[in-house]
Amino acid sequence: MDEQQTPAPAGQGDPETWPCDWLTRGTRPTGDPDEPYYEGIFECGAPSRMRPDGTGYDCEAGHEHTYAQARQAAGWEYAEDDDEAGRLAKLGVEPRTITGQVWPR
Ligand SMILES: [Zn+2]
Fold it and tell me: How far is the CA of 45 from the centre of ligand 1 (A)?
């Protein structure tokens, strides 16, 4: 592996993408030989792209966001926990997790 060949930063040269701002837990290299890795919460940073149909956007790491209007039109809504998922289901709205998966029952 040639260390010069690191990938270009997210969004570089492509005005259609921007760094994903989802917060994820992970480790990052610090460049400090005494403490080479730092563990904590980081912005995802993967390139995000608007969907061609304009209903939302997705990042290359699999995070997705669908706009409220598009969610309503499609008959689903994000749920944060089982209680909320249950409430949505009672209203005839399909509960989904933050990653857009149908809520597991
Ligand atoms: Zn992301």
Answer: 6
Q: How far apart are CA 55 and CA 32, in angstroms?
A: 42
Q: Would you put residue 58 in left (φ > 0), alpha (ψ -120 to 50) or beta?
A: beta
Domain ranges of the chain: 16-63, 75-105
Distance separating alpha carbons of residues 13 and 47, to the nearest angstrom? 12
- pLDDT (tens digit per residue) in 19-60: 999 998 888 888 999 999 989 998 999 999 999 999 999 999
> Residue 72 has which token pair?
């309503």
Distance 24 CA to ligand 1 centre (A): 8
Q: Which residues of 55-79 are buried (b: 16+ CB within 10 A; e: fewer)?
A: bbbbbeeebbbbeeeebeeeebbbb
Say which residue the tokens 């792209």 belong to: 49
Q: How far is the CA of 82 from the centre of ligand 1 (A)?
A: 24
